Amino acid sequence: MSRKNTSRRLDLRKSVFKNKLTFPAFFLIVILAGYLIFHNISSEKIIEAKPNNLNIIEDNADTVNNIDHSTDNIDMIEAKKSSIAEAVNSSDKSEPKTTLINDNRGVPVLYYHSVRESADNEVTITPKLLRTELQYIRDEGYVTLTLSELKAYILNNSPIPTKSILITFDDGYMDNYDNAFPILKDLNMVATIFCITSNLDGSYYLSKEAIDEMSHYGIDIESHTVNHPKLNKMTYDEQLSEFIDSKKTLESITGKKIDSIAYPFGDFNDDSIKAAKDAGYTLGFTTKKGLSDRDDNPLKLDRIYISSKYDMDTFKEILNKTKK
Ligand SMILES: [Zn+2]
User: Fold this and answer.
1) Any signal peptide, and if so, which residues (predicted)?
2) What are phi and psi of 223, to 5 degrees?
3) Among 68, 136, 186, 254, which residue's beta carbon has the most beta carbons within 10 A?
């Protein structure tokens, strides 16, 4: 561009002298040329400063083709600048949901359990490490989806933000409210909690009040059965009542439809899938490693286990390398 601008400036100067324009007119033209050059440099600075946003834009194939192969076209450069400005502006907000994809690349659905100071087991993560991991997710430009957004993507072909992710917690421990919920609020993220409904008294598992408050905030509250049994050792009818009873309990607390379930221990059989469907669930989550995508049976969606023993390098690798 700078070469073109320079030659344009020379052309302007020649025509100025040829036509014997007055000095103020020449001065105005010089200002205009300077403005054009400056504008160009500033837009390049924005690209350097916001690598994530550039990635977001690059996922929009139409825009990118225009940008990369037409850099000598002023209109295209203006379009590029406004796209970048849009991406930059949207990244200032908590949820940059503006740039969407609609292919079947799938969505990482992370699952955690307990969140409190270390009990030295891999399903209990410290609030500090959880915050570090969620902050990383946010800094990488991920958008946390609600379950209905995932459902619309999987079942109805709806588009989702380029970097979408679901954060889920299994079992419904009271410490999720005490320790994870404040972090999620701080980072302006949403998540899903799959609750065991047998003892919702706030001592070990969540209290009804905590469930209600988080549900109002936008945390999805969903089922993890009543008693956390090994489903594949149960009859169809036994499984059906685990699914129906936990659903009713949670619906009575939240006043919202409960239509997703995570199978305890990731154990299930064909009866589980049938019973889940018959009980009115549309999404079911397993512990099989992978992304949730449209090729999965919606009642057997893959997730990604996050152990509290992972260091940040391991966490990043698992997040970035897990395939469908
Ligand atoms: Zn569980």
Assistant:
1) none
2) -90, 145
3) 254
